[in-house]
Structures are given as C-alpha cells and as structure tokens.
Amino acid sequence: MNEAARLLSILTERDETLAVAESLTGGLVAAELTAVPGASRVFRGSVTAYATELKRDVLGVDGALLAERGAVDHEVASQMADGVRRLMGASWGIATTGVAGPDPQDGQPVGTVYVSAVGPAGAKKTAALRLNGDRAEIRRESVRSVLELLSSELRKAGRAQDTEQNGGI
Fold this sequence. Notes:
The chain contains 6 helices and 5 strands; from the N terminus they run αβαβαααβββα. By secondary structure, it is of the alpha/beta class. It has a 5-stranded mixed sheet, sandwiched between helices. Helix 2 links the parallel strand 1 and strand 2.
C-alpha cells in the first residue's frame, strides 16, 4: 500500500476529511490521492494556487506576509494549509509551496520547499526542505514529503487520542 492509500485509509477510519493547497506541485498531490480507489470518501478537493495573488485571495494567506517574505515561506505554507482546510470544510489541510526551478524565486534558491499540515484541535506542522534534482524530481519529492508529514501528524494525533481514552479508564 502506498503512502496516499495509507493516509486515506487512516482518515476513513477516523471519519476525517482532507483538502489540498498546491503551488509548485501543480496538482500532483491531488492526483496522487485521487489515484487511490475510494478517495472520494475523504478527499474534499484542492486548490492549485500557482499565482501569489491566489494564495491571498482564494486561500486567505496574509497579504502583508506575502509582500514581506514572498510565497516561498514556512508561514505561507501553514496559512495555505489552514486556508484550504477552512475553504473546503475539511478536517485536515495540507500545502506545498516552493521553488522547483529552473530559476530562483523570491530570493529563494531552486529546491527550497515548504510543506505543511494543519488539522483539528490546533494540530499544525510545517517542514522546510532543501531538495536536489531537476524540476520533476523536486516536485515528486515535495509530494512524497507532504504526504509523509500528514502521516506523521495523523500518527501523533492518534497516539494523543489513545492516551486520552486510556487515561479515562
């Protein structure tokens, strides 16, 4: 079972849903998820916000933050994930933003990527990546990384839930 299938299975078991905000991956995360049969049980939808103003206008990323730091930033990734979660009415939102190349962007070198997962009860995790390879490799690794990040957050949330349940016995 691949990572996308595992994630969707966990979300199904937990009766939770997922939405995706993508920039540099251009829809690859959503494609990976929807390639799994039955994904529609938990996958709500996605926004490919390639243009910076869409990150602001559609996903609700703070305009001052974008003006100050640019679109390739850890807080931008977090706000994208939270924005798509709220927009789509999902339990979890994940996001990718970064520079796949061939040229630097916003003063950031090629291979600079941020992935984020935001969930219920304030769960939030963002990772900064420095990836090597060509454009396609950077995009593929970004997809893998954001799915692994969400998987990690789901495991952490599951352990916390188990602790709460066991503590009440």
